[in-house]
Design goal:
Blueprint: E1 2-6, H1 12-22, H2 29-34, E2 41-48, E3 51-61, E4 64-72, H3 81-95, E5 100-106, H4 110-118, E6 122-132, E7 135-144
Length: about 150
């Protein structure tokens, strides 16, 4: 059974390992650990017993939030983990007085784009050559809500 909760220090090594598995330019363990002490950050983890199934990280400023990272372990994909993480994040952001969530996604990542659109995100722009390895544009998507 998947449980979603705030990231704690015991999760940092697993989050960093999942970063390395999923991204060409992963955050280091020190960078992930630094988010625990960042008052602007909110990172949630999805755990299945002792196993990290996925995580989402965000930073908020003046009621607006940027989703920094999201990843799901390959063994837990297509089971609703990413949607559950984003739903939990939005719920917590609303409770904290934030009114929107913005993210960047590779323009070629059709599966992620479909998920985000299903969750209520809409395109608001494009960042040319945002990703470096490989070089690719990012689509900017945003979800807004009333408090």
């Amino acid at each position: 059974m998947i449980e979603i909760k705030k990231m704690e220090s015991i999760h940092v090594a697993q989050v960093a390992a999942l970063e390395k598995l999923c991204f060409s330019e992963p955050w280091s363990e020190n960078s992930v650990a630094g988010e625990l002490n960042n008052p602007l950050s909110l990172w949630l983890v999805a755990v299945d017993g002792e196993t990290l199934a996925g995580y989402v990280g965000s930073q908020s400023v003046m009621g607006e939030t940027d989703m920094m990272n999201i990843a799901v372990d390959p063994d837990h994909r297509r089971q609703g983990v990413a949607a559950a993480l984003i739903d939990a994040l939005v719920k917590q952001l609303k409770a904290n007085g934030n009114h929107c969530l913005t993210l960047e996604v590779r323009a070629s990542n059709a599966a992620a784009i479909r998920l985000y659109e299903k969750l209520g995100f809409a395109p608001i722009g494009r960042r040319p050559n945002y990703y470096r390895s490989p070089r690719e544009d990012a689509l900017i998507l945003r979800k807004e809500w009333q408090l």
